[in-house]
Amino acid sequence: MTPHSRLSAYLLAGMLTLTACVSKAQQPTDTPAAETAEATDGPKYIDFAMPSPAGDTLRISDFVGKSKYVLIDFWASWCGPCRAEMPTVVYAYRQYHDKGLEVVGVSLDADHDAWTAAIERLNMPWPQMSDLKGWQCLGATIYGVRGIPANFLVDQNGIIVAHDLRGQALIDTLAQLMP
Q1: Model pTM above 0.85
Q2: pLDDT of residue 41
Q3: Which residue of 77, 96, 133, 143 could cross-link 118, Cys pair, CB 3.0 to 4.6 Å?
């Protein structure tokens, strides 16, 4: 089974849920508590590349395997729930970066200036990428993201161990994995 088909099966099994900011074609639903899988049971992450704010190409594989955990965080400058969640992600980054957490922001923005202004305004010091294609963002398409904020926590072996961790669930999961 290819990594892409494993991830597709994982998503089709209901492990990915709709979240707060949804595309115009989607209807909002309640989001159940984030689910965490054993490291050996989760699907392997799928690599993709997109430009950084400066135009350099970043790949998810630039970070997976080099850190204990990588949080792939899908967001956008125009998404109110994403902006409301960002202080928690910033807190998690500050608490756990030195213990081996890397965050990689994947923006669903279509406007470069709005994207870069939000990165600065929200104090996000971690790597960021976007192809500026909005809901047609390559990373969001690959991961089946249909609502944001959304995230995937990947271990150093490239296994997705949790997804859609928000608020205290993110902090509690990281505290458990990275004491």
Answers
A1: no
A2: 62
A3: 77
